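Researcher: Quick one. two chains, 786 residues in total.
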Amino acid sequence: MTTQNPSRSPRVPGGPREFRKHTPKPSMRGLYQRAIKDSFAKLDPRIAVRNPVMFVVWIGTLIALLVTINPNLFGTVQGDNQRLLNGLITAILFFTVLFANFAEAVAEGRGKAQADSLRATRSDTIARKVLPNGSIQEVNSTELRRGDQVRVAAGAMIPADGEVISGIASVDESAITGESAPVLKQPGSDIASSVTGGTRVISDELLIQITADPGKGFIDRMISLVEGAERSKTPNEIALTVLLAVLTLVFLIVIATLTPLANYVQTPVTIAILISLLVALIPTTIGGLLSAIGIAGMDRVARFNVIATSGRAVEACGDVNTLVLDKTGTITLGNRLADEFIPINGHALQEVAKVALAGSIFDETPEGKSITGLAERLGATVDFDRSAATGVEFSARTRMSGTDLPEGREVRKGAVDAIKGFVRSRGGEVSQELDVAYERVSRLGGTPLALCQDNDLYGVIYLKDIVKPGLRERFDQLRRMGVRTIMLTGDNRITASVIAQEAGVDDFIAEATPEDKIDVIRSEQSQGKLVAMTGDGTNDAPALAQANVGLAMNSGTQAAKEAANMVDLDSDPTKLIDLVTIGKQLLITRGALTTFSIANDIAKYFAIIPTIFAAAGIGSLNIMRLTSPQSAILSALIYNALIIPVLIPLALKGVQFRPLTADQLLQRNILIYGLGGIIAPFIAIKLIDLLVTAIGLA
Amino acid sequence: MKAKFFLPDTIVLIIEDLISISLEFRQRKWPLRLFLGLCLSVAIAPAVQAATDNTLNRGQSLALTLLGLVTLALTVYLFVVMFQPERF
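Model:
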């Protein structure tokens, strides 16, 4: 296989990501115009009420508007230009609300654009429905129901999600996955029998049983999720909302009870100034950006070709403590190839090759095909009637596969223990030579497959496993972040330990059965840890449902996709590691902007309080030397409003992620966003004050 | 034979209107809340005016009362957010 021209190479789930095409690129045309329109629509109190901090600002804006119209509305006010000052305050507050709405609208717009690009793949098509009497009726795809059967010929679009009942065909799934190479779909196989509506058959014909009613297919669910239709607040968002509500309430009570104090120190303050003070002190920056950060997190995951069923799943990625990873396809390259036959019990190499060929002719897995390839290269041929022989499929329970030959002989290959049991059950004996060969292969990090015919052991097949390049560094990064990695493999202990050491995982479970997956997840969860895992088969579904983050492969079965809370369209299990990074980035971004927002308050105190209450003898605290109380209020409010659009790109893109421990990250964030949050507004407010004074606004 | 009692048409119309308004109030809670808030302001405003030694005129005391009620409503709203954050 060449990697020079990836578009021509066969599909390799987990192949180099840089060579893959992406899902249809969302169109961002008109995004900002739509966002501006939506920011006004979000002024509707029924929508505004969902964001407590900004709702308080919105109410403040309306009251400020009233005192602009009538400055003496709440009592006679002294001073000139009260109407102008109140008008300016109203305008700035209005823009503060508008900027916060704009941040949310932009984030939502990006999600909608992503959904539109997915919607473009879903179009109504005419389906050839198979009626109970066997005749074909042409119906619209929207009329198909779960359980209906349809025939889809080359060139036609698959009308809805389903399972292949008969036929073998190449299917172009690029509309969904972006993967240009077609995939082979056939019945019976756990993975290859599942088809998605909106994909196209490019050769031959399939008979498909529909598994989803209209509007409930995979793409439909993806659209509603990406669009945010099913978005609900995540636990961290809820916690932060409570914190923001508490802070807002505290400042509201402080401001509401400030008038008697101000009157006592003979510095009466107007309602407009009280509102300004309230808005400057409540955490408007994070209040305005909070939902945008959450939506952008979902969007980042979607751009990464992963569909998350909820924001909760994305957030859980950031909190994951343990990654449970399959060895094959995730840690090692998916295709283990037969490298050598090791004869035992006095059999010649040619004999072993002949039996290996006989045992693999019905094996369509890459391993099986590589065994037949190696055997044929060694000159082995099939000397029996293939049509009279029967293939025996591999199962997780028997852990072996093979062929029942016409004359009653049974050829089996599989896990050494399983083959030993098979040989003994046929009255044979297990020699020491098998263990020697088995150990030799295991110590090389390969997978040994024992080979037998009836009760006679022929040898061991060495399946070579290659650890994916760069994984060791990724696992080191995860370790530094405090994430533990556990490798699960059906291989024996020696092979597993060699691969685990080579890949750099923290722990491994050898000779694992599907049940072991769920056991290891439960055991980790019982210690209060959050666990992430990947899976694609039906037998992975319980474990995917049990894990805090279950990433199903798009090439996997419907059951796996239903059970998981994330689906990877590229079917690359290694992505779980990247998802942890995205989840952490989401949490760090939210934390960083919260720190920045609260740190900003310090500068605003120093800007507004000393100038307003200068008469009370605290004028010396006006360390910024702001010109007047009016200019101080306007400068602080302008800064408060402008910081929201300035931080929108950061909220959408996320804070740059570095693989550090939680303590190191906290220190770093406090230094950058805490200290920065204190210093930046001092400088910005002073500059705005100079500008406001220069143009004569105050 | 029992004599029938007829209400004048105008009164019937007024009763019908009142019934439809009360039904509307049941369906739309916000107008009712606003109406009750205004009634409460009218009731409290004289007390506010008296407390400020009549430095505020009637309109100003009514506006200030309304502002106080808005502040109170915001406080209740923020408490609801704190205790039922998933609703927002």
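Residues 82 and 632 of chain A are 15 Å apart (CA to CA).
Researcher: Thanks, that's what I needed.
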